[in-house]
Amino acid sequence: MTEQSPALDNLLTESRTFPPSEAFSAQANATADFYAEADADREAFWAKQAERLHWETKWSQVLDWTNAPVAKWFVGGKLNVAYNCVDRHVDSGHGDQVAIHWVGEPGDSRDITYAQLKDDVSRAANALESLGLEAGDRVAIQMPMVPEAIVAMLACARIGVLHSVVFGGFSPTALRSRVDDQAARIVITTDGQYRRGKAAPMKANVDEALEGAESVEKVIVVRRTGEEVPITEGRDLWWHELVDGQSAEHAPQAFDSEHPLFILYTSGTTGKPKGILHTSGGYLTQAAYTHHNVFDHKAGEDVYWCTADIGWITGHTYIVYGPLANRTTQVVYEGTPNTPHEGRHWEIVQQHKVSIYYTAPTLIRTFMKWGNEIPQKYDLSSLRVLGSVGEPINPEAWIWYRENIGANSAPIVDTWWQTETGAIMISPLPGVTATKPGSAQKALPGISAKVVDDQGVEVGKGGGGYLVLDKPWPGMLRGIWGDEQRFRETYWSRFADQGYYFAGDGAKYDADGDVWLLGRVDDVMNVSGHRISTTEVESALVSHPTVAEAAVVGATDPTTGQGIVAFVILRGNAVDGGDAAVQELRNHVAKEIGPIAKPRQILVVQELPKTRSGKIMRRLLRDVAENRQVGDVTTLADSSVMDLISSGLKSGK
Ligand code: 6R9
């Protein structure tokens, strides 16, 4: 671009705010003075947060940033992450507290106490050691949401081995490239997994993936679905045969605060996935601190449920490490939200009296699509805090969530963070913040974020640009596995002069200085020189009563640079997807945002292409919008969706 790029247009006019109730504030973990306390002395603030954990040896220095951008937090400190998540709760007399209410998709269930979890993790740690694993080795885990997946992660952590969880739905090729990249010695999997009421193979995929994989010595198989699986003699071991007979005693060794904890692969905009590396002390500190304050979690009282998959960072930080470090009782659900019926989540909330529920906007919009009458059938009165993560939440979905799930009173925390940040960075604090539908609002106490322009200069109120993190934080990634150059280039080169971490997200400040996330920078369109966020147009579309879900892309346009192309799913009762309806939607967007945002084209579809973590793959929709052959669909949750969209368009539906 030659001319100065115009600031992101502040197009949305959402102005509702929801102050916390006095009753909630009076009991909240967080208080407003946290911000000032952290600003006054960030390192002292984080040192205080680290006291949440048990340290075998205390640190001598809070932060060493001399080797930036590779941080060292709690330098010289030693701890065992698994001890912190499990044993110490038993030691403090809470062994009988349920850690996990596990709910299997077919209807089976298990309640696991902290004492049982300690025994299970100890046996698994002994088993892994019996195979010769040593601190620093890598174990890849591809498993559905069964308790053994969590046990396996904690067993690795206990012996200083890095785990790398690969999402259960990933293809053999995807698993293989991750196994090779980290040279994993062991792979842990299950025979099969339940998906939408059916048992599907898992071990078979692993076998295909590992053909000729030289680093892998053993494959450990948990029996879940009971189906026949081929066993490779000398390589494959049944979990129950290997683990069940082990001693339940295992002495946890303390590791350095900077000892690597895990690698989690995340897709970049191009090229091979990046192995994001996290370490122990700082990561666990931020995980525990954020889980405690952002969800207002009370140990021994709340029942918490994060609906993410452990194959995603949200599952790592907000199912495994944060909650368990905080002695949480939590629900872990194995299956899909509409198996066997669309009220499954609310049935579980009612049954277990879930009080804190953390999910993704894509699921909230799906619930909207299924209809208000479904949650209405259940008693959701136990819910007191609701969370959202993964993408910007449209104000419409936010309000729906509040009204239909949160009884118009539970605070909603819209939490912005990334695989790379390790834990929540920008979010309201329940009991403190007057929340605004659609805005993640403010960096947490101890965290610093800014919205800057092309030159790295902070924009003013009402201005837009790029989100950066201008100060190091405890849970930050320590690198990309085996590729330091890529680490520096991807995150630290864009604003190298200022030393800022570039998050890759567009953002703006509103008139109050609150942060609104506008989607990935590559999701920002440029129409006639105006930058318009796909999110804002999507929000406008979803605010129309006939629209359930919308995805917007910028397609190359000879006159305007990019033209806005929208894909919409209509609500169940809005059957008319004809010309008049489309015209009305175009006018609606023009009315909501301004004529510049009027979509060039609106296509009514039945489904949208989404990744397993629920992100819409706009790249594929752009291919459709620009009449190109549709690109790589291997990371889609359901790869047939693109065929459905393309054929629907050809037949003029
Ligand atoms: C935790 C997680 C990170 C990207 C991030 C941003 C988007 C996540 C968001 C959000 C707006 C939120 N994102 N939470 N955008 N509001 N509350 O999702 O990690 O899978 O690495 O994705 O997701 O674009 O950059 P990850």
From TrEMBL:
Mg(2+) binds at residues 542, 544, 547. Pfam families: ACAS_N, AMP-binding, AMP-binding_C. It is an enzyme of class 6 (ligase). It comes from the Bacteria. Residues 536-615 form the AMP-binding enzyme C-terminal domain. Gene3D superfamilies: 3.30.300.30, N-terminal domain of ligase-like. CoA binds at residues 195-198, 314, 338, 528. Residues 92-481 form the AMP-dependent synthetase/ligase domain. InterPro entries: Ac_CoA_lig (IPR011904), ACAS_N (IPR032387), AMP-bd_C (IPR025110), AMP-bd_C_sf (IPR045851), AMP-binding_CS (IPR020845), AMP-dep_synth/lig_dom (IPR000873), ANL_N_sf (IPR042099). Its cofactor is Mg(2+). ATP binds at residues 390-392, 414-419, 505, 520, 531. It catalyses: acetate + ATP + CoA = acetyl-CoA + AMP + diphosphate. CDD domains: ACS. GO terms for molecular function: acetate-CoA ligase activity; AMP binding; ATP binding; metal ion binding. Catalyzes the conversion of acetate into acetyl-CoA (AcCoA), an essential intermediate at the junction of anabolic and catabolic pathways. AcsA undergoes a two-step reaction. In the first half reaction, AcsA combines acetate with ATP to form acetyl-adenylate (AcAMP) intermediate. In the second half reaction, it can then transfer the acetyl group from AcAMP to the sulfhydryl group of CoA, forming the product AcCoA. This is Acetyl-coenzyme A synthetase.
